[in-house]
Amino acid sequence: KMLSVQMYLTFCSFIILSSFAQELRHKPVETKPVRLFTEEDLAKYNGQEDGQPIYMAVKGVVFDVSSGKDFYGKGAAYNALVGKDSTRAVAKMSLEPDDLTSDTSGLTEEQMKALEDIFINVYKAKYPIVGYTSRRILNEDGTPNKNFKPEDQPNFTIKEEF
Asked: Hey, which bits of 102-159 come out as E strands?
């Protein structure tokens, strides 16, 4: 009898798990739409307004850093970095106003390595991507940048967004 009860429980577990797996297979994956941000759009998410998400761009990728409100929110230590593309500041580990830009010209090899490390191991690992800066996706003349490679957004294509 003990074996048959154990077999029955195993069978019930199998049925429950397979029905759960089937439900997961048929459930659409929830993805938030990816946005294209101008500098003006991004500036609205600077952590100054309660209830508003806090966004920050690094290497043209816009991250929602709202979960780090204690670091990036109003009056917080790193609030200067949000509402803009702060790539240079991240590379130099600086909060100087002149470094709060996407410009990476003149950075040392060591700073570029630090930028890549922080980009991958901090921002991409910790915060959701909500979009891209228009500068990353578009050339100066407004044409699509063919070298653009969207990170972690398999459903995002330039064509769908324009």
From this structure: 129-133
